[in-house]
Amino acid sequence: MRMNGLGVPQNYYVQTETSGAYIWVIIAAAVAVVGGLCLYFTVFSEKNAGKYKGFMAWLYDFIKFKKLYITEIIKVTYMISAIFLTLASFAIISNFLLFLCTLLLGNLALRVAYEFSLVLLSIHENVTEINKKIKK
To answer: How would DSSP label each residue in 83-110?
Structure first.
């Protein structure tokens, strides 16, 4: 084993930092499991539905997935992806046929893929509404 000038093995500090990181990850996982279970079954239990106002009401709905935010995220990522694909297609303008295929068919395929994911979310929202109406 190679020693540094102080008589400490050269990889001693690396091993110490790595093992400290592993211990921290284990502690973080344990605290997350215990804390998550405690919060879910106390603060965010079904018996507290409708009791909160303001930020806590929003947080309760967020934790219970009362509203899905993925729809807005998908719409924004579609716009970013479409703009990127359109601008990136100009990088291959020297091959005009490939440029047109990327510009037109690439954007068409991107649109179809995003619309498919939005249709799945729309089905979920409609089924949720039907379930709410049936329960009344």
So the answer is: HHHHHHHGGGTTSHHHHHIIIIIIHHHH
The whole-model pTM stands at 0.63
> Tokens standing for 100?
């047109």
Residue with tokens 């047109």: 100
CA R_g for the chain? 26
Per DSSP, 48 falls in state G
Main-chain phi, psi angles of 9, to 5 degrees: -55, 145
Residue 65 gets which letter from DSSP?
A: T
- Is 60 within 8 Å of 71 (Cβ atoms)? no
Among 33, 40, 32, smallest CA distance to 48 is for 40
Task: Please list, in sequence order, all residues whose beta carbon lies within 8 angstroms of the beta carbon of residue 63, skipping any fewer than 6 positions away.
Answer: 40, 44
Domains of the chain by residue range: 1-64, 68-136
Give residue-wise pLDDT tens across range 78-108: 999 999 999 999 999 999 999 999 999 999 9
